[in-house]
Design brief:
Blueprint lengths: L3 H18 L1 H4 L6 H15 L17 E3 L12 E3 L10 E5 L9 H13 L4 E5 L3 E6 L13 E6 L6 H11 L1 H4 L3 H7 L7 H5 L9 H23 L5 H23 L18 H16 L19 H12 L12 H11 L2 E3 L5 E3 L1 H6 L7 H9 L2 H5 L4 H4 L4 E3 L6 H20 L9 E4 L2 E4 L1 H11 E5 L2 H16 L4 H11 L11 E3 L16 H7 L4 H4 L13 E7 L2 E4 L11 E5 L17 E6 L9 H10 L9 H12 E12 L9 H10 E8 L12 E8 L14 E5 L16 E3 L19 H11 L3 E2 H4 E5 L17 E3 L3 E2 L2 E2 L6 E3 L17 E5 L10 E4 L9 E6 L6 H8 L2 H10 L13 H5 L2 E2 L7 H26 L3 H26 L3 H9 L3
Length: 1006
């Protein structure tokens, strides 16, 4: 039976025979690119398994091959873009087609192809005219002088008929090969470019990714514009400079987007300042004209920028325009994914311009150590499990009344994904149900039904909402949504829309994406203690007033209210002025309205809230007092993400969906107990996703994704039985390119048992049986804190003018493992006599246990016995007995036992992750101990035997460390293992574990 490769090879050989038989004609000027694509190039890729003609993939949003059929000869869009099911958003590779006649492997053709690949973030790109096929390395920033060195493989059409040579193409670009991630794997084997031109360009970002390189460009443009504005307008302050610089860059980027998307036929930017005119005046004039066509915040008249007579230094502005519009610029705005622009802007927004026109980081960003953009795959997961769930099975008419929000939206990455998912849902519905398409909702194209611009406007206006306290972020969020709105449009479709409806192309979003404080309402101003400047900075906001269509308060007496007509729906708007272009009319509320459809916005509140809320924001005393009076989840640790989680519950309607990425410690740390209690009152969790510590590039933050459903005001999910919750563990370094990183690790149920503990921990990695064992161990009447005192070591050795006191003369800096302490001379360093010891010396001298903060690679606690006098640092906890019993060595046995490490990992999410699991003193203090009664002969015997085994283990570990022959090492290794097993067996007895419970511990230990 022939394989897929055999069939592909056979079909391509037929194409080769046809081409060879009529080669003279096909290589002549009479044979056009369009004919070459239809007769050969399309069929070539079809032979490799791709549905080029969309014979089976009818939904435009779910097609693996996007084909550009524009015959204008434009170089703005690649001829073919290849995707791979189920990911129809990230291009896998581009193919640029040319006609067989004429120069093929030219620098211009290579540069054009590389530009598509680099802008689309694909590792490889293909240039072909069927007569030849060249594979290019598109991982690095293209440069017109370097393109010839970026070819990694060349094929002639005769090579296609050679099985071995054709395999070099097939196993890279066939659909079968892409499913195995072949392009990325192959690109990973390629060396970096070695040309002199490329090396000269390193300082301009040659090795940088698209987003890194473009961010550098934007930062440069911001500095140039700020100085250009300030030099001619010295009275401009920081806020004004920041705003007008942002608006100018937004306009330039948006115009370039319109040009490369072929929505605007004119090349505006490259003509600014042409023929001796003022580049700035041309820019202002074009912006005014585009405002009449597009509307929206981008081109909206600005009191400073667009004021008659406003002057700037022309030279830097001309340079910016020239660079952005240069045909040899590496940036192709048609190929750059819109979410990538969002990631660039997110970091871009972390800076402001000072009164002196200097660009500096915002204070809150500097404190946080930078801006951390949420990776796209996480955004997609959260939106799919919230908004995706909310709209599943619903018709467009049902979805029209639903509302989805990010209440800390930043540059709009989550809102962009929400909008995109809604567009995909609607398009899929209409292509499956063409008979249900209403007039004006869709347009027919070669590849299926597409949503009309009018329908996309309705979806954006009706369904997508966002809030952020940063005004520039709100502007960028709107910009991103506008770019997405126009992403699929052409100059023809936009002209047809305006001819039919006489509307601007961009709907107003001032009532959808708003600037305000999501946590603090205007009632905080009742105290009257805020200056106008403080109030402006605080920016308090009431959701009921800003989103009256969603948080309406209907009366039951049938009174008349102002209403806004949106689509086919009438919404009451008590006392709220009209915004936008919609019309008022009077509506009468029915005395008894029909019950709302579950999960829709008619009941009041959002249908889903998603996002990545800020962590650790600062609050002054007045705000802190206000927050404590409004939020039940806050504790002494006033972390902003806690309030955002609770606020989401307050703003969702019954059966609404919640999804956020937040610090993972909240699932188990005692300081988050109130949040967990509040969460159980508001939500039923649907999934937890444990993430690696390096999710955010440049930051090490332990995070977890939580998705949930809102409960009715009278319900508690703890009253539900057998509640199933998806658990997804995403370990570090285990992601495979091209595969779904969120395949469930395991699915577990009956979540109710997981919170039956004093601190209501979410034991999200525990099965029902494991949770039962945790509960049993927690019932022990004794804790570590009751038998030992615990203290962390000293901080770094800083000199102090305070009085000196008796202290050890040396500090430990050697190896510390389970039952083993390196006491060699190189394990210590001297401790300056003039430095004060601020902790009791008893924790650094005499019999004690030292517990490493860091768990072992096998997720085991690491404790050792010590008597010698020396200091330890803060990565070590010192434990000393409160009394003589139990013996401190008995405590050491418990700490190093399997069952205690197993228990610790069950109740602490971070400890179960493949990064740097740690323990803190509070967690050590709360570890359970079995009750040992010395008057009970059995308990006394076990206790004494345990101490004896520990003493033998300590001696055996020393001997193992000193062993020099393989025989001795093998002997003492096995002796230590035997002693370890005997200690564990005794500890199991003392905890009263059954055989089944021991199996649970053993199965969960490494």
């Amino acid at each position: 039976m022939p394989t897929a490769f055999d069939e592909a090879f056979s079909r391509v050989k037929e194409l080769v025979d046809v081409f060879k038989a009529n080669e003279t004609y096909y290589l002549s000027p009479q044979f056009s690119e369009a004919q070459a694509r239809m007769d050969f190039i399309d069929k070539f890729w079809m032979a490799l398994g791709w549905d080029v003609n969309h014979d089976t993939q009818k939904n435009p949003y779910e097609q693996e091959v996007k084909v550009e059929r524009n015959e204008s000869g434009s170089q703005r869009r690649a001829d073919y873009a290849f995707f791979l099911l189920p990911n129809f958003r990230d291009v896998q590779f581009f193919v640029e087609a040319k006609k067989p006649h004429g120069e093929f492997g030219s620098p211009d053709n290579y540069f054009q192809t590389l530009r598509y690949g680099w802008s689309g973030k694909t590792p490889l790109a293909v240039l072909t005219n069927f007569d030849e096929l060249h594979i290019l390395d598109s991982r690095f920033k293209p440069h017109i002088g370097d393109t010839l060195s970026r070819v990694v493989r060349r094929f002639s059409y005769a090579d296609y008929a050679d099985s071995e040579k054709f395999a070099g193409i097939y196993w890279l670009f066939s659909r079968e090969a892409l499913a195995n991630g072949a392009p990325a794997k192959f690109a990973g084997t390629l060396p970096r470019p070695k040309s002199k031109t490329f090396r000269r360009e390193l300082f301009k970002g040659g090795y940088q990714s698209l987003d890194e390189a473009f961010l550098i460009e934007l930062d440069k443009y911001r500095e140039m514009l700020a100085l250009a504005f300030k030099s001619k307008n010295p009275d401009l302050n920081s806020e004004q400079l920041t705003e007008i610089t942002q608006r100018t860059i937004d306009r330039l980027v948006f115009i370039r987007f319109l040009e490369d998307k072929q929505i605007e036929s004119a090349r505006h930017v490259e003509h600014f300042g042409a023929e001796g005119s003022s580049a700035w005046e041309d820019f202002v004039r074009v912006s005014l004209n585009l405002d009449r066509i597009y509307n929206g915040v981008v081109f909206k008249r600005h009191e400073i920028l667009d004021a008659p007579g406003f002057q700037i230094d022309e030279k830097p502005f001309r340079i910016i325009c020239d660079e952005l519009s240069d045909p040899t610029s590496p940036y192709n705005f048609d190929s750059i994914p819109i979410h990538i622009l969002g990631s660039i802007y997110e970091r871009f927004l972390g800076k402001i311009i000072t009164d002196g026109a200097r660009v500096v980081e915002k204070p809150e960003v500097r404190k946080a150590g930078g801006v951390y953009y949420t990776p796209e795959y996480i955004v997609r997961y959260i939106v799919a499990h919230t908004v995706g769930q909310a709209v599943e099975g619903r018709t467009p008419a049902e979805i029209a009344g639903m509302h989805f929000a990010d209440i800390a939206c930043g540059s709009g990455s989550f809102l962009l994904e929400v909008f995109d998912s809604l567009l995909r849902h609607h398009t899929k519905f209409y292509n499956k149900n063409p008979g249900k398409v209403k007039k004006g909702d869709c347009v027919q194209r070669d590849d299926g039904l597409h949503l009309s611009l009018k329908k996309k406007q309705e979806i954006l206006r009706n369904n997508v909402y966002g809030v952020d306290i940063d005004r520039q972020a709100v502007e960028v969020a709107q910009l991103s949504l506008y770019l997405k709105l126009l992403d699929d449009e052409t100059i023809g479709s936009t002209a047809a829309f305006q001819n039919e409806f006489h509307f601007t192309l961009l709907p107003p979003l001032t009532d959808n994406i708003v600037c305000g404080n999501s946590l603090i309402g205007t009632d905080i101003l009742d105290t009257g203690k805020f200056t106008p400047e403080e109030e402006k900075k605080l920016n308090p906001m009431d959701f009921e007033r800003r989103f009256p269509l969603i948080f309406q308060r209907k009366s039951s007496g049938g009174e008349l209210h102002d209403a806004v007509s949106v689509g086919d729906h009438d919404y009451t708007m008590p006392g709220v002025p009209l915004h936008g272009t919609f019309s008022y009319k009077k509506v009468k509320e029915p005395k008894a309205a029909p019950p709302p459809m579950p999960g829709t916005g008619y009941a009041g509140g959002f249908d889903a809230i998603v996002g990545n809320p800020p962590y650790g924001a600062d609050f002054n005393k007045q705000c802190e007092t206000y927050i404590r009076s409004k939020f039940r989840a806050v504790t002494n640790s006033l972390d902003s993400f806690i309030m955002f989680v609770e606020q989401a519950g307050n703003l969702l309607n019954p059966r609404g969906y919640f999804g956020m990425i937040i610090p993972s410690g909240w699932v188990s740390t005692p300081s988050s107990k109130k949040l967990r209690e509040r969460f159980t009152e508001q939500f039923r969790p649907t999934s937890f996703v444990s993430l690696p510590y390096d999710v955010f590039e440049g930051a090490y933050i332990d995070t977890v994704i939580v998705t949930a459903e809102r409960l009715s005001p009278t319900g508690r999910w703890s009253d539900l039985k057998d509640t199933n919750v998806d658990l997804v563990v995403f370990p570090i370094r285990h992601k495979v390119e091209g595969q779904n990183p969120f395949e469930p690790f395991r699915k577990i149920g009956n979540f109710v048992n997981w919170i039956e503990s004093p601190d209501k921990e979410f034991l999200i990695l525990s099965s029902k049986q494991e949770a039962a064992l945790v509960k049993k161990l927690r019932q022990s009447p004794v804790s570590f804190d009751s038998v030992v005192e615990i203290m962390r070591g000293i901080e770094t050795y800083h000199p102090s003018s305070a009085r000196t006191c008796r202290k050890p003369k040396r500090a430990f800096n050697g190896e510390m493992l389970r039952y083993y302490l390196d006491l060699g001379p190189e394990a210590f360093e001297s401790y300056p006599a003039e430095i004060q010891l601020q902790k009791p010396v008893k924790f650094f001298n005499g019999p004690r246990i030292l517990l490493r903060q860091l768990l072992s690679r096998k997720f085991r606690l690491q404790a050792v016995y010590a008597e010698e006098e020396f200091l330890t640092n803060q990565s070590v906890q010192s434990l000393i007995s409160r009394n003589s019993f139990p013996d401190i060595k008995c405590i050491l046995a418990f700490l190093n036992s399997r069952v205690v490490s197993w228990f610790f990992c069950q109740i602490n999410l971070v400890a179960r992750r493949d990064d740097f699991p740690k323990t803190i003193i509070k967690q050590t203090r709360e570890l359970p101990l079995p009750e040992i009664n010395l008057k009970n002969p059995t308990d006394k015997m076990r206790h004494d035997k345990l101490v004896s085994l520990v003493e033998k283990m300590l001696e055996a570990r020393k001997q193992l460390s000193a062993a020099q022959t393989d025989g001795d090492k093998d002997f003492y290794t096995h002796k230590c293992a035997t002693l370890d097993h005997q200690i564990d067996a005794l500890v199991y007895e003392l905890y009263g574990l059954t055989e089944d419970e021991i199996k649970i511990v053993e199965a969960g230990s490494i």
